[in-house]
Amino acid sequence: MLRQFALVEKVKSYDPSADEDAITRAYVYAMKMHGSQKRASGDPYFSHPIEVAGILTDYNVDTATIITALLHDTIEDTDATYDEIEQMFGNEVARLVDGVTKLTRINFVSDKAKQAENFRKFLLAMSEDIRVLLVKLADRLHNMRTLSYIKKPESRARIAMETMDIYAPLAERIGMDEIKSQLEDLAFTELNSEARRSVVRRLEFLRNQGDGLVDRIIDELNTRMLDNDLVAKVHGREKSPYSIWCKMQQHDVGFEQLSDIMAFRIVVDSVEDCYRALGVVHGAYRTVPGRFKDYISTPKPNGYRSLHTGVFGPENHRIELQIRTRDMHIIAESGVAAHWNYKEGGHPDAARRDGPQYRWLRELLEILENASNPEEFLEHTKLEMFKDQVFAFTPRGELISLPSGATPVDFAYAVHSEIGDRCVGSKINGRMMPLRTRLRNGDQVEIVTSKAQTPSPTWDRFVVSGKARARIRRFVRLQERDQYHALGRSILQRAFKESRNELSDKALSGVLQTFSQPTIEDLCAQVGAGHITGRAIVEGVYPRLKITEDEDKIVQISNPKTRKDPQKGGVPITGLIPGMAMHYAGCCHPLPGDRIVGIVTTGKGVTIHTIDCENLAQYQDEPERWLDVAWDSIGSSHQSHVARVNVTVLNEPGTLGDLSTVIAKNGGNISNLKVMDRQTDFFVLLIDIEVKDVKHLSDVIAALRASTKVNTVDRARG
What we know:
With about 725 residues, the chain is α+β, with helices and mostly antiparallel strands.
């Protein structure tokens, strides 16, 4: 673990103006906040942020990034807050720390959704400041180095797969090749340890057989450069086990057939020397067909520039060569970190930040806007990052980088989303070609557009870029939604008409929660798509319709013997002494289905109250007057009971007529009505309604709430 003074010295070695005091305070603060926390390895937890900061010093990052690395887990894993960090270290650091922080405090339906949402937030943060990504990559690298200490194999596999799917491609996109290679190799160790061991064993065998082969090749290449008056440094290395394994899988060959397992780099002074060195190499050795790539004239999206070639080099060994200048080498090694300008206050140069190496980031943000959910966004993002590149040109000569296998439609969306939407045809190298034509490196593409054109659902079958696919799917999704909404609305109008009720947005809004839909448009779309029936919506708005229909379907086969009809002298209450007088309390109007209690009242017999009646409080000290009673399950269904409701209605002609019609349609009968309050725009009514039970009353209330003339309905007490 790096000590505080060692960390400060490493930063000061490349940035003498670094704020030593701030770094020291952040170091101490991180140790204090993480306290006695332990990692899975048993090491103190604060060793992790310190190691992350140490990794970033190799890329000469600024003071704010170092402090962010030291504090990146404090908000997530300790009692530290955003405001506290902002107060102690400034707004810049607080914003960076927040960008790196995961969404651990939010509950997601699945691990995949959590991963996708974390990545979405992370992307938005790094679009504001790329330093968020630098810290996150260093964080992930140290976590991968200590992955073996996690006990659960499934957790290790998930982390390794996430690293391979997301973080290694991101490291490649910003040009940090060394971090990318380490992440891939560490993930490969976890995901396919046996394959890696076999590759490593084979490399050791070849290394022993070669007896200093790499050094001999370097010496010969150096001699060739000196003989041609070229000042150059030649470096050689074996390819990583993972890259060798990928080549074996890609070309479906065994290790014995794979000859280009060594890579060499020639670093020269100028661009002219790059092409001179290339001429020397091609003049001395046979080239491997199809392996030459000029990334100097056509840089990669991350700003990487080099000449690549493959030759049968010294001792007739097949080798890969990279030829670049010293400046190109710095950018290739450090990527985005190489663009950092400390003298300007630690912020990336604005022109560079908006330059071509950041174009991929802007495209990911467009994918984010068009995706329907975080999981779809993650899918399109993986698609965008994993594809090899093909380079095409606009008629004006602008270079457009696309995934391998891209079509003119992908090209159109890469130029601009609206051009993609209006695309009707394409010219490739001056010839009209089908939109599904696959582009090749160096193609010049001209897109033909029409204002009347819209994205075709068939395009989704052949486009390969995440941006194009997300945009097309969004359009199709919105188009289908509009169609389903119109169809669903029509279905509902017919269903409501058949039930002799009026369709209204107010009626539909009352059942949104019942059918788990956020808006009326979504509800109609679900009906149009066939996921919900129109009849179900009508029965949700007017529950009484379902009961009535079910009763109509009952066929009486015989006249079974039943208990005495309570309407002819019986009482639908059990628990009373035979012959005891009984009446219902006018304060709470109990109904079958309510929990009830009997109160012995002098001169009146037994008064039935609901268990939650407020007037029961006055009998609290007289337990001898309380009777345990209940509704008779058979008798209660044959007798009408009076329920009382408070209704607020619009003050306009026809309101009372509509009110009584709704109640009558649902089997209720108004026995009394009183105007409690009368205003310019509304009435407050107290209505007594004869119903069978609580369920019947609920159906009547639901139907009233669906009426456009009714504002509120509640059961009255008293």
